């Protein structure tokens, strides 16, 4: 797991390739060209790139208008700043079913030094309730590339959630990627860990430690958070009987909520969360913040042990009734 | 062949009558702005815009976006008058299952070019459409209609700034300057003046017209299309509720619909007082 790269870098490469081969692709940014990895696009294809200035609301509207006329705009900024354009995303993009691709970088506490105001921890929550929107959060740079190509192919509004900080590569060019289908990376039988973004790599590391204790872990990369892959979630919950959800997001409203809703309605199963617990982030190193906010592989290991205890209690309770 | 002004004036009266009937049937909706803009809509759809109601999405059509979606009764009534859909359907306004939603939804009806209802968004979408037309070398024009109360929204000024700097000459904005908004008079709530100077400072060419002078409105839009340097805003000075005496100039009619008796009086006035709302 060497070769650290950020998901935003995978996006930057893909969008450039895509734009070179498809003239409908348009680049827009709210004054964050380099940070969102649109720099090469802006230099190589200046006639199809606009920095609209620090005006997210107008950017989302302009993207909508261009999409109505047949272009495929990628509107980029930090995930947190899309919050400034939530109503525009709702009315101009989602009700209209506009073919707009919203790209939010700097997701999670791994943003680091910029501090709490820049760390998107509520973006999935604010967007997940919007009908017609697809939400994708790739786990590494290679997958970010595939995701970028896939969302350009599909017609309809998308939010692509990306990270700033380089992270471990966990998929390869050959790993399948289908929008809307969660990918099982590791087929264990004792517990299922559903993760997205940078937490997929952490889950894999946690699984290695757990294997030493003879705990067999299934890891599911839920790159598409909306629509959520209910079938895979319910099947894995049924087969393993215990669930952990790991994400760089608030506990409320993110992937954890999507999985919890699916389980509560379909197959109630003991579940634990590894996510930010009801607080904003702050400045620090990515590593330091992951430790402070309990988002490390060790935190996943602890969550797995908690949920396995609950699974055992549940099994005992059921068998004593029989 | 352009239609004679007197025929367009009759269209405006027919649009006003439809508005009253629709609002009565709906039992809610915005009377003042809808009636106030009837002459502008009649002038645009019967004297300016290039379109084909039989092919509503003809790529070369001019686009008209209603950014202040709450005055959609005037848009719906005009589209029906122009033959986009049957006039009988107007009476379904705001009812369950109707294509005539309380605020316009993109392509819910032929001729609806954007979703609106939350103020300030139409102009950004129009900027995107105008930018698309510009980079594709298209010749159609994008018209964005806005309210004056709507100018309170910050997004509007982001869009003015964007269109100005990128010289989006495919875009013409028409602002309904009727001086009222939801809770009173614009200058009491959040003053807009000096509006013209603000627009000029944002890089726009500004024209002002009497929003009830159909000939003047048509001339202004023609002048706007001829200006190649900057995008153009036409400030249309209108009287809210125009054509129905007890509604004229009354902020209280902004978000109100007439009851049966008020509608009867209004329709009677529109029929018998034609001389009052027509020029020459």
Notes on the protein architecture:
The complex is a heterodimer of chains A (322) and B (280). Chain A has two domains: 7-161, Thiamin diphosphate (ThDP)-binding fold, Pyr/PP domains (Rossmann fold); 183-311, Rossmann fold. Chain A has helices spanning 7-21, 39-44, 56-68, 86-95, 123-128, 141-153, 199-212, 230-240, 255-266, 286-292, 297-321; strands spanning 25-29, 49-51, 72-78, 101-105, 134-136, 158-161, 183-186, 191-195, 217-221, 224-226, 243-250, 271-276. Chain A is α/β, with parallel strands linked by helices and 322 residues long. Chain A is 41% helix and 18% strand. In chain A, the strands form two sheets. A seven-stranded mixed beta sheet of chain A has the order 2-1-3-4-6-5-10, sandwiched between helices. Chain B has 280 residues and is α/β, with parallel strands linked by helices. Chain B has one domain (5-277): 3-Layer(aba) Sandwich (Rossmann fold). Chain B has helices spanning 5-26, 31-36, 38-47, 72-81, 122-135, 154-165, 186-189, 195-201, 214-226, 260-272, 274-277, and strands at 63-66, 142-147, 171-177, 180-181, 184-185, 205-210, 232-237. In chain B, the strands form two sheets. Chain B has a five-stranded parallel beta sheet, sandwiched between helices. In chain B, strand 6, helix 9 and strand 7 (232-237) form a beta-alpha-beta unit. Chain B is globular, with a radius of gyration of 17 Å. The model of chain B has no long low-confidence stretch (mean pLDDT 95). The chains are: A alpha/beta (322), B alpha/beta (280). The interface between A and B is medium-sized, with 30 and 30 residues.
